[in-house]
């Protein structure tokens, strides 16, 4: 049983409907960082397959070898990546959402080439231009996106953002959508436990929900 999962799926469906978007246009990424396996397992058993982690090492401990038992598993890195973890990240994750500087782009492209796979990636945009947050500044986004696209081993799918905690998230979601549209990108990873319904209204294709699904960390 995973009652919180049902509640969140229901809320996403309702937000899709209210926004006039087709049912199923938003994917729920269940954020499992710092959560015990006994909370993750029922959610897996209920059919959830997309999971977000923010640390490579922690994700390895939880998910390495899990694909055989759980076909269709999709692992998404949503936390900052260091170049010295690029190899492990490229091997473990299906999607890396946090590309934010040339050195990490180069390191991931190298590892993806080595693995012979087209690595799916998103660019993280620091929509609030906060010093404490990673992500490219909005004014640098177009040039950075063009740079990511120069690497054949990387498949750029879209953009991701984490709005400042003390601001209305809607304007940040709208900005991310504008940047994605301008660059012909279809994936928008935005919205967390407190604001995922607003994010759906502004076009999110992926919402990243942790505490509302698993409880406080
Ligand atoms: C932890 C985290 C989330 C989930 O946050 P909740 O508020 O617990 O839903 C989403 N996105 C990122 C990047 C995170 O680090």
Instruction: Profile the largest sheet.
Output: 8 strands, parallel
- Average pLDDT number: 97
Q: Spell the H/E element sequence.
A: HEHEHEHEHEHEHEHEH
Enumerate the distinct ligands: pyridoxal-5'-phosphate
How helix-rich are the residues, as a percent range? 40-55%
Kindly, what is the distance between the CA atoms of the first and last residues, rounded to a whole number of angstroms?
A: 20 Å
Low-confidence stretches: none
| Overall spatial form | globular
Tell me the strand order in the biggest sheet. Answer: 7-6-5-4-3-2-1-8
Radius of gyration: 17 Å
- How many DSSP-defined strands? 8
* SS-derived structural category: alpha/beta
Instruction: Assess the beta-strand content as a share of residues.
Output: 15-25%
> What's the tally of helices?
9
């Amino acid at each position: 049983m995973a009652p919180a999962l049902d509640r969140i799926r229901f809320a996403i469906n309702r937000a899709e409907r209210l926004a006039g978007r087709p049912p199923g246009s938003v994917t729920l990424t269940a954020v499992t960082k710092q959560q015990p396996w006994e909370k993750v397992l029922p959610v897996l058993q209920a059919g959830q397959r997309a999971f977000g982690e923010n640390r490579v090492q922690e994700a390895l401990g939880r998910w390495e070898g899990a694909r055989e038992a759980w076909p269709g598993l999709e692992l998404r890195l949503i936390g900052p990546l260091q170049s010295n973890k690029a190899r492990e990240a490229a091997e473990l994750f299906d999607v890396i959402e946090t590309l934010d500087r040339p050195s990490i782009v180069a390191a991931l492209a190298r590892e993806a080439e080595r693995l012979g796979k087209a690595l799916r990636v998103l660019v993280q945009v620091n929509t609030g231009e906060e010093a404490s947050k990673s992500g490219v500044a909005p004014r640098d986004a177009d040039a950075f996106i063009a740079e990511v696209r120069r690497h054949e081993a990387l498949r750029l799918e879209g953009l991701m953002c984490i709005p400042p905690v003390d601001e209305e998230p809607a304007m940040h979601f709208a900005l991310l959508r504008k940047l994605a549209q301008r660059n012909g990108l279809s994936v928008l990873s935005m919205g967390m436990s407190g604001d995922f319904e607003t994010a759906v209204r502004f076009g999110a294709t992926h919402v990243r929900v942790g505490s509302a699904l698993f409880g406080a960390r």
